[in-house]
Amino acid sequence: MNGYKKDTLERWTYDKSADLYGIQNWGAGYFDISEKGDVVIMPNRGNKNIRTSIMDIVSGLKDRGFDMPVLLRIENILDSQLTRIHENFKKAITTFGYKGIYKGVYPIKVNQQREVVEEVTQFGSCYHHGLEAGSKAELTASLAMLKDPEACLICNGYKDEEFVDLGLYATKMGFNCFFVLEMPSELSLILERAEALNIRPLIGVRIKLSSTASGHWIESCGDRSIFGLNTTQLVAVIDCLKEKNMLDCLQLLHYHIGSQVPNIRDIRSAVLEASQVYIGLVAEGAKMGYLDLGGGLAVDYDGSHTNYMHSRNYTLYEYCADVIETIMATLDEKNIDHPTIITESGRATVAYYSVLLFNILDISQFEALPLPDKFLETTPELIVNLFEVLTSMNLRNIQECYNDALYYRDEIRQLFKHGDISLRERSLGEMIFWHIIKKIAEECKKLKYIPQELKDIDVVLADIYYGNFSVFQSLPDAWAIDHLFPVMPIHRLNEEPTRQGILADITCDCDGKIDKFIDIHGVKRALPLHEFKADEEYYLGVFLVGAYQETLGDLHNLLGDTNVVTIRIGDDGDYSFVRESEGDSVADVLTYVEYDPKQMIIEFRKTAEEAVRKGLITPHERKKIMEAYDAGLRGYTYFEK
């Protein structure tokens, strides 16, 4: 049986599940497992007095008519993350005697959903938390959402005349709206429009640092990064502003070294270099006052606390302290006033507060069928040889048996291609081969040293669990860049997970799967899961999906947005549904790709009437068929029971 290693002398407990799935490592104090075996939410980070079962929430969702999959947002966690970032910077500022202040900014590209941006501005208002816009549409949204005149509004990205005019009007209305120069050519447009509208702009510059970072997003920095000015271009900007008598408008220096920077050394190096550039700008006579460090504050997706790309080797306070200490140490040497520090920590702000919930629809398991007691005299010799490999296997020769099995299997397949063996004979050969692989996997567990070729052999025997979701819609980074998210069952965690599985979604695409999973020592190729029971729902959760996934999702197989529900957990552990958004219907997604559902009904009615005319269906059957067609258009794009 394909199973997770079982200790028959000791009963399985929820604590063992916590260790197995690493929930206390990556959960950041927000998630744990109850004695009942359910994943629970702890909105007050580690306070076990307030624990809300996700399964209780699932029951509430079902009672309210919401089908899986559901994207669950927990307001408390977003509120907590914003508070943590600001309070840790506040603590570091006090500890080191920093003379400036900290102002956070949320880049809405990380998750542009109105609800998310609205909650960021709401919960961050007491800290004057601002927004970053990288396009005209994002700037338009930001101006509608941002109400705090003390918050910063950072304008990055390409800027046309409409973009610039809108930002200038925002400045005139009292917004701290900074135009960050991504390219030298933008300066002339900003100055031209500022003169035309008689509005003095707030200008920042994005600099290309030589410092680089490891991880998925290393192209964000360095000499070959897409955006930003090199030092020669920066000097040209200074000279132009001096000539226009507008150097006082230059007040902000910005850089960006990546969305997920796992190594604190890279962060320190970038801050140090940027601080020197800041000193140079002050020396040139620029007013300055703001240092924007961009993103980079990483999320520990795998819980390993290392500099692996899906982790980070520092705490939040260490990040804040290193930033403050580095800036102070550099600027104090030149007696330069400490600037207002801005970070654009979007990933760390919203990642934790969204969980994708889905149910398992079916499974495909490898079960070795019994082999015949004896072979026919006409059985091909290669199949007999393959069977001898199975019967002669022992601990000493499993590597040899593995190589022989591969050889005989491939030869049998070649014979079949040329018509030299029958379909049943090929089937028999395949059965023997998989018996060999299963036996090798079992024998490998007894070895102290497993040959390299055999280390992942149990993965080929893993079950396939078919989940009611779309990787392309809800977890695009898992498909596109092999990003790892914590995945685990949300219940039955006081039972031992006896199966090893990979996850397949409901798209008709071989890439619609998750077959790499977090592990504190690297990457697992299969996930421990429980035996699937056809008469019971089995629910899984994908955690830390709040950053980028909703924005990047696509309509593969016309599977649309999922149902989205936002909850708020009270001090008594009870929860309330504060926002609900139904997922896309079939009609919704069809309109996205230029179909007209009303016209489709008309055309299909014609087809059905033609079938009546031909005697293929009755008029009453036409009525039933049209009702089914209409119900299909109104239905959820995902599997409905």
Q: Can you put this structure into words, describing what you see?
A:
The protein is of the alpha/beta class and 641 residues long. Strands 4, 15, 16, 17, 18, 19, 22, 23, 24 and 25 form a 10-stranded mixed β-sheet that branches. Strand 18 and strand 19 form a beta hairpin. Helix 6 runs parallel beside helix 7 (161-172), helix 7 (161-172) packs across helix 8 and helix 14 packs antiparallel against helix 15. The radius of gyration is 30 Å and the shape is globular. The two termini are 30 Å apart.
Largest sheet: 10 strands, mixed
Query: Which bin fits the share of residues in helices?
Result: 25-40%
| N-end to C-end Cα span | 30 Å
- Percentage of residues in strands: 15-25%
According to DSSP, the number of beta strands is 25
Low-confidence stretches: 1-8
> What is the molecular shape?
globular
How many DSSP H or I helices?
A: 21
Task: Give the overall pLDDT as a whole number.
Answer: 93
Structural class: alpha/beta
Radius of gyration: 30 Å
